[in-house]
Recover the amino acids of this structure.
């Protein structure tokens, strides 16, 4: 197995483990409330902003299919600089889907309400956003990818 593929699976496992451990804190009762941010347990049965909650159990299977498609596509494409962001993306996505199999929904816990009410989210959601931005930048700036590969 090549070093970039190992890096993908290490990123995947790392994000999954970190996210599940943070979620365990909230499942065991941790709570924090402030004027701007509440840290409290919420089960999200949809995706972002609870969209597609009407799909119920089908949602987890559709998400698994999408995650598998992304993983297969990137592994077949074989571009080394995409491996770590893809590992982050897939690890975070699998962590959220895993929640759907063992809980009533995805375990969310960060509720921003300073100035405006925002969606409740979790560490995996943030990591998905980070990975998408990384992949977009690597696609929009191909020289960055070349520099990463030159190291």
């Amino acid at each position: 197995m090549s070093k970039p593929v190992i890096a993908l699976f290490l990123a995947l496992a790392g994000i999954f483990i970190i996210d599940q451990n943070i979620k365990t804190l909230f499942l065991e009762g941790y709570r924090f409330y402030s004027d701007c941010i509440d840290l409290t347990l919420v089960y999200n049965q949809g995706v972002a902003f609870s969209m597609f909650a009407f799909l119920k159990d089908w949602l987890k299977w559709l998400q698994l299919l999408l995650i598998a498609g992304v993983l297969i596509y990137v592994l077949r494409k074989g571009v080394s600089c995409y491996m770590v962001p893809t590992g982050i993306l897939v690890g975070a996505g699998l962590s959220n889907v895993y929640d759907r199999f063992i809980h009533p929904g995805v375990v969310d816990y960060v509720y921003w309400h300073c100035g405006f009410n925002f969606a409740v989210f979790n560490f995996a959601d943030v990591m998905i956003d980070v990975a998408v931005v990384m992949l977009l930048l690597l696609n929009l700036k191909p020289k960055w990818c070349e520099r990463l590969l030159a190291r």
